[in-house]
Amino acid sequence: MKGRNHGVLACLAGALIMSAPVLMAQKTWHANVGAESFDQAVQGDGFFPNELWITAGDSIQWTFVPKNEPHTVTFLAAGAVRPVPPPPAGPPPPPAGPPFAFDPACLSTQSYTGTNCVSSGVESGGATFTVTFPNPGLYKLVCLIHTDMNGAVHVLSKGTNLPHSQAFYTSEGAEQAFDLTGAPWQSQRGQNFPSNSNANTVLAGTGQIVGTGGGTQYRAVVRFINPTITIQQGESVTWTNIDPTEPHTVTFGTEPVPFNPMAQVGLGATVDGTLTGAVSTTSTFLSSGFIQTQAPDRAAPAAGDNQLPIGTTRITITFPNPGTFQYHCALHDIDGMNGTVIVRPGQGQGQAQGEQ
C-alpha cells in the first residue's frame, strides 16, 4: 500500500508542478460592448456588464457586438477633459468640422495604469480590444461617442479573492443587454407625445437610460416612428426627438463629402426653440444638425458652472410643392433610420413639381 500511496502522491505532485504556470498566468476576462435587436432598430448603448472585479495584472477583452453602431472602449487619465471622439464617429477635421481633439497617444497602448489614457478608437462589427491593468484601483470606463454609456473596473490587489466568476459576468451581461434591446419598439411613442393621427408629427427617436452600481447604459430606438407621412401641398411636418440622450438628424437630399452631421444646413429662423426650413424639390439638401435633449446641469460650486440652455429637440419643415421626399438620420441611416414624406397636390394643382 505504501508503494501505491507513494505513486499517487508523486503523480499529484507532478500534476501540481505542471499546472503551476497556468494557475500563475495572468487571467483574461471577457465582456461585450453594445447590443442590438435583430433588425438593428434598437441599440443597447452600454458595456455588458458595466462593472467588473479583477486583480492586478489581469486583462479584459471587450467584443464590439453591433454590426454598424460604433463605440469606443476608453479609459481617460484622472481629471482629464473628455475629448471629441475621433472620426468617423466624431466630426471630420477642418474645414468641415472642428480641430481634431482626440489624443492619438491614447491609441498607442493597451495597458492602463490609471494615469495614462487608453482607447480602442471607433470599432464595431465583432472587433475586439484588450486592456491590461497592472495597478490596483477603481477605474472609469467610457464610450467617447455615447455620453451616458460608462462603467467601472475594480482592480484588486493580486491574490485577492474575487466576488464573481466569468460565468457570472457572461450571464449578467446577456441579461442587461436583453433588458435594453428585447422589447419591441413599434408601439413606443413616449409619454406626452401627440397621438392625434391627424397631426403632422414624427418621432425622431426615443429611448431610456438605466443605471447600475457601475454606471449607466441606455436603450436607443434608432427609427423614425410614423416614418412615412402623407400631407397636402403647403403643409408642414414636425419631427421631435424624445430620446433622453441620443442625438438624431432629419436630413433631406444627398450628403456632401465631407459632411459634418452636427452642422445645420438650409434652415430658416428658429421659432420658439424649433428649427424651421423648407424642402422644395427632391434634390433640396437640408439637414437639422443634431436635435437632442440638453445634458443635465452640473453643480460645481468652485467653478461656478452656468445653467445650460434648453436643448433643440424639434424641427418643422414646410413642403410647398407636391412630390415624394426621402429623408434619413445622418447618424443612423446605416442602421435603417429612414423615412418618406408624401406631399399630395393641393386642389387645382397639376403634376408633382417636387419631382421636376
Descriptive overview:
With 356 residues, the protein is mainly beta. The protein is built from 2 helices and 19 strands. The protein has 2 domains: 25-181, Immunoglobulin-like (Sandwich); 201-351, Sandwich (Immunoglobulin-like), CATH 2.60.40.420. Helix content is 11%, strand content 30%. The strands form 4 sheets. The chain has a 9-stranded mixed sheet, covered by helices on one side. The chain is elongated and about 80 Å long. The model is unreliable at 1-24 and 350-356 (pLDDT under 50).
Strand runs, count? 19
- What's the CATH architecture name of the largest domain? Sandwich
Order of helices and strands: HEEEEEEEEEHEEEEEEEEEE
Strand order of the largest sheet: 7-4-1-2-11-10-13-17-15
Overall pLDDT metric: 85
Number of domains: 2
**The CATH homology group name of the largest domain:** Cupredoxins -  blue copper proteins
**Helix count, DSSP H or I runs of 4 or more residues:** 2
As residue ranges, the low-confidence spans are: 1-24, 350-356
Taking the sheet with the most strands, its summary is:
9 strands, mixed
What is the CA-CA span between the terminal residues?
Answer: 100 Å
Report the structural category. Answer: mainly beta
Here the CATH topology of the largest domain equals: Immunoglobulin-like
Beta strand %: 25-35%
CATH class of the largest domain: Mainly Beta
* Bulk shape: elongated
